[in-house]
Amino acid sequence: MAIECLVLGAGQEVGKSCVVVTIGGKRVMFDCGMHMGYHDSRRYPDFARALALFPGAADYTAAISCVVITHFHLDHIGALPYFTEVCGYHGPVYMTYPTKALAPLMLEDYRKVMVDQRGEEEQYSYEDILCCMKKVIPLDLKQTVQVDKDLVIRAYYAGHVLGAAMIYAKVGDAAMVYTGDYNMTPDRHLGAAQIDRMKLDLLITESTYAKTVRDSKHAREREFLKAVHKCVSGGGKVLIPTFALGRAQELCILLDDYWERMNLKIPIYFSAGLTIQANMYYKMLIGWTSQKIKNSYTVHNPFDFKHVCHFERSFINNPGPCVLFATPGMISGGFSLEVFKKWAPSEKNLVTLPGYCVAGTIGHKLMSGKPTTIDVDKDTHIDVRCQIHQLSFSPHTDSKGIMDLTEYLSPNHVILVHGEKPQMAFLKERIESELGMQCYYPANNETVSIPTTQNLKINATEKFIKQNLVFGGDMPKVGGCSEARGILLMEKSKTPKILCEDELLHLLGMEKHLVHFEPLPCSRMKEAESTDEPLLSSRIEEVKHTDGSAVQQASLADLGCERNG
Amino acid sequence: MREPRPLAYIVSSAASSSPLGNYLDPMDDGPSVSVPGPPNAGRPRAAEPRASTRSPEGYEAEVRTLASMSRGIYPLARAEALRGLAAVLETADACGGAVEQCYGCAVELMRDEDEGVRLASVRLIALCADKFAGREGWDGNGNGDQTDLMFLQLSSMARDMSTKVRIEAFNALGKSHRVSEGVLLQSLSKKVIKPNTGSGSIIKGKKLPPKLIFPCAAGIFAHGIEDEFYQVRTAACKSLGALSKFSTQYAQKALDLLMDMMNDDTEEVRMQTLQTLFYMATYGCLSVQEMHMHMFLGLLIDMNALIRDATRKILGLVNLPKLQMFKSAIDVLITSLEKNPEEQEIYSVLFSVGKNHGSFSANIAKHLAKEISMPSDAELILDKPRIKALLIVSISVSFSDDKHNKLDIPEIIFLHAISLLGKISCALGEVVDQDSLLSYLCQKSGTPFWKTRLLTAESGESEGCNVETVAGIRAQIEKTEKSTKCLDQVLTMQSMKIIIETVERAWAMRKSCNICDVRTILRTCKEELRILASNSSGSTGAFLRFLCEYLDAVQFIVEILQSIQLDNSYDLGPISLDVLLEKLDTSILKMKCCYAGFNREMEVQVCELALLANLLRLSKDRIHSKLVLEKLHWTINRLECLCADGSCELSYFSREIKKAFDANFAGSDVCTLLELFHLKPKTDYGMLKAISAVLQVRDNDSENPSSYVCGLPVGVSFDISLCNISRHDRLWLRMIVGESIQHTFLELSSFGGNDEVKCCSTTIPLFATPMAWSFVLRVCLVMECPYGSISVHQRHGGPRDSIVQLCDELDVYFVCTEQR
Ligand SMILES: [Zn+2]
User: For residue B732, what are the β-bridge partners?
Assistant: First the structure.
């Protein structure tokens, strides 16, 4: 038996995460994301290939047993409405409660950007999103869900963003974990990933930071606060482009706390209603946050920010310092681009960028060597004089975290997705050399086949158990290790059975035959060979019987096998 | 599918019952499959101590069987097997291959799927490490690789996903006996340090399992201090400090991590961080740099008193390399003192900091001398905490090891330091007694009274004063025995007078002044008194102790008056007022009953306090309880009786109360009566004696408990000695177990000795022992305090009256003997 793993997205790239795994005849689609860097058909995974996996299937519903979404980021969920409403998949879709709550917000926000701002053709409507979400079956952490008779899935806490989960899937003896995005160190508002140790054939892990080892978060926090404080005390404006969820809350807790301690009066703004709404969700989903927040929640809800207020569009040109959170995170358009255009030309201002930006976005351009002008389109050029602070407050694990998790789970095979090729190659080397596991990092649309272990259940006779497995019995001890000796009996259409040597005859209904041998001196070897007599001496061992008579007997396994034909 | 069941059953029943007891005895003939565990056994530990009956072969068999059990398929059984191995190791001496075998089992299960098994595995590895380290010659020859390997193995568990395992792993790491520097440094840094730089001997020539190489220690502490769970952070912090004694380089880098931890949002973690820093300072591996000062000083004025206190303790130990750092530390300590004047221990810290930095303190002394020599109302300045603090710092130079600066201290500093005698002596601790210190200060300040005496006693000039020279002076003083004794007496009396005056002043200003100030004054006075008392004996000592009691009472009265004045104030509810009244009563009882040989004046004084206390009760209760009125009546009678012969006069206060009492308090306001009380502590104490007792239990402490059988009486042997107890006193031995109290009357006739000291060794039965495995008996000697014929407590078989404790409560430990 094998696990077939077809990577439809996030193979040697970051974006449109989608992996279809065939495991024990079941096909599970992990994540159904869209690529933010493309605006053509490349933005979606090539679903047709998933259909091709199962030649007999009439449609996606027949081909795919279930879809599991790890978290609400668009590169993990963006293509879901398209897949269910346009491609017509009607099977079960699983995601955690918070993801189910927050996903419609994210999807609708992006749909609006696509349709209203870029004037693209609508891929799916708001109704489609709602329809799609109706099909979703919510998951709770560590809840074992029986998808069908054979397939079992279970979600584990992944950190990363609110509601993010790692997914364990098992069919028969074959088991695997798909991590989605995860974080191995806790931050202020989310805990660290947490999973049980299990026997795994395969681990599919993200590898955004396959080569980076991050230093302590304390230092990063200090630097960030210092940069922001310096900017606002110099009268500058700070633009913090973020996703609406996750980074925004993390930085907000940090800043709100710092403002309180330093007694600062400079306003902190949230740009869109989306983030405010997101904060509301955080307040409700406190059970999915970090231990610290859960502990302090009884006294004060940490998402009730003291110093944060709503931003009006007209504030953009206001004089005086301020801090503004604006979406989207990589300045790929929307409000953060609008503000960036206005604020970038002043050297007093500061833009803090996330640790990772997709190629093609302005964020990516700013990170790769500080440019003086940025061309948004052929008519718009932005004069960039502001300071840039790169803030690697990433909710992704670093390479050490990936190694730690892999070492902890100790799977037989590892597949890397969601990363960049050279770094993945580096990490693959480390995993293979340091942990001694097979590691792959397939490109999009490639398939990897993983062999699986198979466990066989056997029965044992009562006598065998009493003689060998009960403590205090006459267990033969060889070099400190205990060894049990018996006969494995495999019969057609019956569960294999292990029994004591002397039980065999009775079970088979046979008489005991004693065969006497004569010692065979070397001188007679030639003679023996020349006759048709079988040469038994090579596979015969001596067994002492209770009556003291020495008998020769063919080795156990051979005998059992012969009898069964 | 019938067959597999017995297996499951056997293994699980083996796990849930005591495996050692039922299955594992090698002498047992054959298995007893159907015997389930004893029904009430629950989940007993495999750690039944049977050490006495066990032979070496027994050990081996046990280890072997448990080891094979640890390879079972049921996680609970595996975990139990590991715990069993640990229990065997605990009792065994670490000979033979047992430790190695246990260690092997533990390592095998380090990566178990079950967190309970991993937890047991970590514990067992830690135990094995301990046993290895305990072996003779272990540290000497080339076992570094082994200890490092174990450290690495435990490190790899510190990144486990189970919180419990992480905590246990960090705890175990902290107990490591010896770790090479390279491994230690790696544990701080997430980036993998190339093993061939520095000490790379760890993997050289040693076959390590493929997963246990250098990187598994990488940054475990960096991870530990940012763990999601504060319990893990606390454990990591503790171990971080514990390991710092192995390497200075490590200690320096660990300090940076610890500084980050001071910003942790959990108080437990911050407290642990401070404890860790204190530990490091104690071991001399804490070197504070300028970059750390900001944080340190911030903590000295933290909102949290515990944090402030812990930080000060550290500051008293560290070495500050720059004058600027020193000065800022002193400044912040003074700020802290001004903010929290009740934290008197700041003076001790100032003294230690000053003493540790002799040359810097000498610098302070010079500036201070100038400041206080200024003619402008110097008296006023001296009261300020800042000047007091700087005086302490200046005077500390004399006790510094830094010899060069001792001559630089101006005389005026010594002169003013005399007023801070109590604080300085407190800061010096037990090393120098106050008399010698005073004589030293007087000598250095050129006070004439002392000069004449000491110059004759000591030829030549004394160079500075360290602990030895002060002791020397003490020796000199003892030579001139009598005169000095007398001088001591005179000095004590003088201090006493000053203290009493201060108390009177504080009493007078209790209304006009902030209650906190009064509180502080009284507390300081008590402290000074206590120091004087501990250095005095005989009647003077008794009187000083009496005065302490008296000041306690005064303080309670002030508090009660305050709360009555505020009239049902919110901060002092009726309950706390009750508590205060109760305390006042106890305090007066002690004065009344724990001293013998009162002269009349003193007894009158105590009676007046008793009057006042009862009056306070009346004013609080409004309803005049019979008991209080009876007590008042008795006290008034007693006072009249004492003053009957005219040797002393009944005070106006007492007379007015008598009048009011006779008139049944009709028309008289209790509050007005309260105003009449006049505080005038008496100083003529005659032949006062303190009644006291020493209670000791024979052959018992927490390590060495006495045994008993549940429910049966048990005898406890005591050594009792009594001081100044009269034949008429009624003494009881009070024994408390949980809720139940037993009083045993002590027959004074069975005591030997004279009138002053009586001794006795006796065995007293405790009748109702509890049905428990062990318990702690709290024992105390109490004395009845008759209040005339008024019976306060109606207890059966116990003291009839109010009682006072004659000694501190003593804990006696008991363990049940096994019932078989
Ligand atoms: Zn994500």
Answer: B745, B782
